[in-house]
Amino acid sequence: MREEQRELIVQSMDESYNRKDTNPLCVLQLEEGHDIASRGFCFYFDAMEKHVVLRKNEEHRILAGHQWVFSNEIASVKGEPESGDIVEVLSHQSKFLGKGFFNPHSLIAVRILTLLREEISFDFFERRISQALQLRKKLFPQSDVYRLAHSESDFLPGLIVDKYNEYLSIQTLSFGMDKRLQLLCDVLESIFHPRAIVECNDSALRALEHLPQHRRVIRGTLDETIIVEHGIKFKVDLLNGQKTGFFLDQRENRSRIRHYVRNGSVLDCFCYEGGFSLNAGAGKATSVAGIDQSSAVVAKARLNAHINDTNAVTFEVADVFDRLKELAHEHARFDVVILDPPSFTKSKKNVSTALRGYKEINQFALKIINAGGFLVSASCSHHLTQEAFLTAIEHAAQKAGRRIQLLEFSGASPDHPVLPAMPETSYLKCGVFSVQ
Question: Less Cβ around it within 10 Å: N or C end of the chain?
């Protein structure tokens, strides 16, 4: 074959491979000395052996920016991909839609990584994580504490990375990310050179991907670290703390309450390690009481109060539901009550039960707030819509015989971005209400 003909074939292959609307590539397998025209045929083969073909008209959500392909949307799977393998996603008409992680055992059968035909390698993850880092540097230019990678919202489906000073915590909630855990740690080490990376893979969500749960140091040596958030110090326990060590998503909401609590009495329910409580103290509240049912986290909250040299904040181990009822029965009164409970539902089928829980705690909280005081109420369940959450609080106010006004409504801290095309990435809701 003449050299110019060979170059023409290679160029044609490159162009075909890079076209988003082309799935098959045409390869001319010609022996030396045979002219292209004399053969008159070509062999078609897929750009990747492993691919998923969608049912008819199931591509619209993916084209709109959603990153999940559900198992009931798939017409066929070719190439025998295993859990965690990279597959190409094709429309029913064989149009290339993207590449992603495959898991035949999950309801989310494919998690889209990219809309391009590109290699999923060290360089790919380095680019994505670097892009996420640049955003955080703009959001928190003076801080070394933030969520670095927020899964689908940073176009890294199933990957959570939090930065706590010189330490990183990592969660891999998809089989594909978990399969590449060491590669991801290599990327993180090349960018940050952390003192340690802690794998916080004890989330129940991993069971949905058929992954085991564990928590351990996988790189470096872990030591104690104290973070500073809006001037308040918190000791973070990456090995034994909840989630990835600390609830960074409430960062801005914790600070936002300060101008509501000045010269007032505050009750912080589900106080965890004292985030809202210590911010209330920093906001010049006259008294702050924190309640949590876990003696371990209350001990940490007391330690954080000690670190910040404050005596205005006290903590109590108690069941919040029971304690609120007792306080209402005792006719106790506070100027501000904060409700930041764990998620009351992990699935859509339990939303009605969760709503009853939200109504109950908000009802009893509203009963013990002084007229002219404030209710701060949050929900971290993405299955509960903003409308349903606000309706539950309004119904609680009616049952408590109180009148409320919504003053502020917010979501998670901006290092937990939301994709408009994926409602599932929006989960945290936090409202501040005036109470009469």
Answer: C
